[in-house]
Write a structure and sequence with these properties.
The chain has 359 residues and is α+β, with helices and mostly antiparallel strands. The chain folds into 3 domains: 54 residues, no CATH class; 192 residues, ATP-grasp fold, B domain (D-amino Acid Aminotransferase, Chain A, domain 1, 2-Layer Sandwich), CATH 3.30.470; 92 residues. 31% of the residues lie in helices and 18% in strands. The chain contains 11 helices and 13 strands. The strands form 3 sheets. Strands 6, 7, 8, 9, 12 and 13 form a 6-stranded antiparallel beta sheet that branches. The radius of gyration is 21 Å and the shape is globular. The protein starts with a helix and ends with a helix.
């Protein structure tokens, strides 16, 4: 109940809505649609008639729909980042390169499917590899993790790891990777990617923003792309997931042009429309994402290559030389489409999942 009161007070203050009305509507949202305070804020229900709330797809139903068309035997291609990388490179798709792997001590990853990748089973081996690199900006993440959990950036200078607040030395970095409780059997190390210069006004910090794209594959091989949205990292955040405070920007699928951003900012800590980037002042609406036609072509080809998972949410980075596939998700959140377009997607999503059944 404390969270209901706190969030109601915040929404009332910044949205100009009376507190009793906000709290009452928030409780009604829980009673009628099992929507909590966070969803009430995310979907801006304070400014919407109660009759519209049912048009938003509940998470439980969304997961049931996604699970029904995503055979468990096929999910490893998405859930295991090494298998995803292997599948993408086998099909010639541009994706984030992998520099090496640090296996988990308790349950080490099976590397038989990726024998060409280097593995560092000891701290000394990792230190020797850093010495080879000389200068390197890197990124580490769990092989089976998601939503940016457990990820970290690291820097190598003159062959040695630069101390950070997270890792004082190679030993600490190695220990974290080898004892992590995240699934997948260890960590993968990658070069840190930089956004295309045209995207830099929206990504001035250390984080790399990605484009989330929905794809639905028919049994005949047709691909439908109903939604795309850009995630803009929060200041100083390494990852662009909304749980880290990122903004979201709708993208016109036909043109690749941005709309108005949505999210929480320091001066307005409730979900609202954001016309300019809080740090750079860059205007979102009308800006063109580079390589948009190439991105759509890549998504269509990748959707066919992952045909065992007919409904996917892709995360794509726009870099200097074009789009790169970072990962895909069979249990992707439909709420990103609903929050960025400011309307419910329940009807459309139910229809798409009914049509695009697993072959």
């Amino acid at each position: 109940m404390i969270e209901y009161i706190r969030r109601s007070a915040r929404i009332s203050r910044y949205a100009g809505v009376p507190f009793p009305l906000t709290l009452g509507r928030m409780l009604l949202g829980r009673l009628l649609h099992d929507r909590g305070p966070m969803e009430f804020d995310t979907f801006q229900f304070a400014a919407k008639p109660v009759a519209q709330w049912h048009t938003y797809l509940p998470d439980r139903e969304r997961y049931r729909l996604q699970a029904a068309v995503s055979p468990p035997a096929e999910r490893a291609l998405e859930e295991n980042k090494l298998l995803f990388w292997k599948h993408c490179t086998t099909h010639g798709f541009p994706c984030a390169p992998i520099s090496g792997i640090i296996p988990n001590r308790a349950k080490p990853v099976d590397l038989s499917a990726v024998p060409t990748l280097r593995s560092f089973a000891t701290e000394a081996a990792l230190a020797a590899y850093f010495a080879e690199l000389g200068h390197f900006e890197g990124f580490g993440k769990p092989i089976g993790g998601g939503q940016g959990y457990g990820a970290f950036a690291f820097t190598v200078r003159d062959g040695k790891l630069v101390a950070s607040a997270r890792h004082a030395d190679v030993g600490q970095l190695f220990a974290e990777c080898t004892t992590s409780r995240f699934p997948g059997g260890g960590y993968l190390l990658q070069p840190r990617l930089s956004p295309h210069p045209a995207m830099r006004p929206f990504m001035p910090g250390p984080g790399l923003g990605t484009v989330r794209v929905f794809s639905f594959l028919t049994a005949s091989g047709g691909v439908e792309v109903p939604f795309a949205g850009l995630r803009v990292p929060a200041p100083r955040a390494l990852c662009d997931n909304f749980s880290y405070g990122s903004l979201g920007v709708p993208v016109d699928v036909s043109t690749g042009r941005l709309g108005v951003a949505v999210g929480v900012t320091a001066d307005t800590p409730i979900s609202h429309f954001v016309e300019r980037h809080p740090e750079t002042g860059a205007t979102f609406a009308g800006q063109q994402i580079p390589f948009w036609s190439e991105l759509l072509t890549l998504v269509e080809a990748a959707a066919r290559a992952f045909r065992g998972l007919p409904a996917l949410g892709w995360d794509i980075a726009i870099c200097q030389d074009g789009p790169l596939l970072l990962e895909t998700n069979w249990a992707f959140g439909a709420d990103i489409a609903e929050r960025l377009t400011n309307r419910g997607w329940a009807r459309e999503l139910r229809a798409w999942y009914a049509r695009y059944a697993s072959p």
